[in-house]
Design brief:
Elements (H helix, E strand, L loop, with lengths): L1 H5 L6 H12 L3 H4 L37 H28 L6 H5 L2 H25 L16 H17 L1 H4 L7 H5 L6 H28 L4 H14 L4 H21 L2 H22 L6 H4 L3 H32 L4
Helix pairs in contact: 4-6, 6-10, 7-12, 7-13, 7-15, 10-11, 10-13, 11-12, 12-13
Length: 334
């Protein structure tokens, strides 16, 4: 027995079985038609190119959404283009219209001035809305809720505008008076001037700066930043140095009241009252530059008036800041 065991060849059972399986295994692909290798799937049809500006699935990062600082420059450019285009249109109308007036007189007349202002601001608003849509701007616009029409807040805002005029007056006197002659011409057309200053300007400018720009900035940032940016744009668009400073500070007040009331009506009323007062002063002074300092000759009285105005403005500014912090806490950004 031992001799037979010793002569048994050393065979690897695993390799022999594997070889048997490999040579005897049936071809499943031939015997089982259901398991035939499938044909390669057809290539998917090529999808048309997607336009990110029109695809609702596309969302730009928050930092790149309208409005950026580049967009603010674009808004100024839109305003300048609208102003130049309007001037050309009004010049053509003045040239082809009849009458004994010269071309220069027609261009500076009340009707042409009102038409020029209405067209330039209207085109600016439309242009900014189109640009905002192309840049996929977000946020609500054009709040005209009557629930926010608070007479006491309107009175407070108008008083703040008056106090602001007193406080920043020394700063405005640093600029040459020659710039103010451009403003005086706006008050020389009687009813047409009233239409421009008291009706068109308050409505159209508040729609642009508070109704569009402030709300657009607020959709990305805090209410405080939205107020500052919209006020800055409100000042820059006026271009005349005295008006730039004055409009910026007034824009801060109007922006706060708009955020508090969530309505354009209060800021339109305050804007109209401020322009109406400016028109009355221009008519009363016959174009002369009337200031609080020139009206109060006594230095002591003027110092008291200025000190009280400054203290009231600082105290109100602190209260406004605290109020904005509460608004920011209760209104998360979009």
């Amino acid at each position: 027995m031992s001799e037979n065991l010793e002569q048994t060849p050393n065979v690897n059972p695993r390799s022999e079985v594997a070889e048997t399986i490999e040579t005897t295994a049936p071809n499943n692909s031939e015997n089982n038609p259901s398991e035939q290798p499938s044909e390669p799937a057809a290539a998917p049809a090529t999808e048309p190119a997607v336009d990110p500006m029109n695809d609702p699935r596309f969302e730009a990062p928050r930092a790149q959404r309208f409005p950026t600082w580049g967009d603010m420059l674009a808004v100024i450019g839109i305003y300048l283009l609208a102003t130049v285009g309007t001037s050309i249109v009004v010049a053509i109308i003045a040239a082809i219209s009849g009458g004994a007036e010269s071309f220069a007189e027609k261009m500076s007349s009340g009707p042409m001035s009102a038409l020029s202002y209405a067209l330039s601001m209207g085109l600016t608003i439309v242009g900014v809305l189109i640009y905002r849509k192309l840049r996929r701007g977000t946020g609500r616009m054009f709040h005209f809720s009557l629930r926010g029409f608070n007479p006491m807040l309107i009175l407070w805002g108008f008083v703040m505008v008056l106090l602001t005029g007193v406080v920043i007056e020394p700063v405005l006197e640093l600029f040459p008076d020659a710039f103010l002659k451009m403003i005086d011409k706006m008050g020389m057309h009687g009813g047409w001037s009233i239409l421009m200053l008291v009706v068109l300007a308050p409505v159209m400018e508040e729609v642009l700066f508070r109704g569009i720009l402030l709300e657009s900035v607020r959709s990305k940032h805090s209410a405080g930043r939205a107020i500052v940016v919209s006020a800055l744009m409100f000042g820059v668009i006026h271009f005349i140095p005295q008006q730039v400073v004055n409009a910026f500070v007034i824009g801060l007040i109007l922006g706060y009241i708009y955020v508090r009331t969530e309505s354009l009506w209060p800021v339109i009323v305050i804007h109209a009252l401020n322009n109406a007062m400016a028109y009355v002063v221009m008519q009363w002074s016959d174009g002369a530059n009337i200031t609080v300092r020139s009206l109060i000759e006594n230095n002591t009285v003027y110092a008291v008036v200025y000190g009280v105005s400054l203290a009231a403005l600082v105290a109100s500014g602190y209260m406004v800041w605290r109020s904005i912090e509460k608004i920011n806490a209760g209104s998360p950004r979009a």
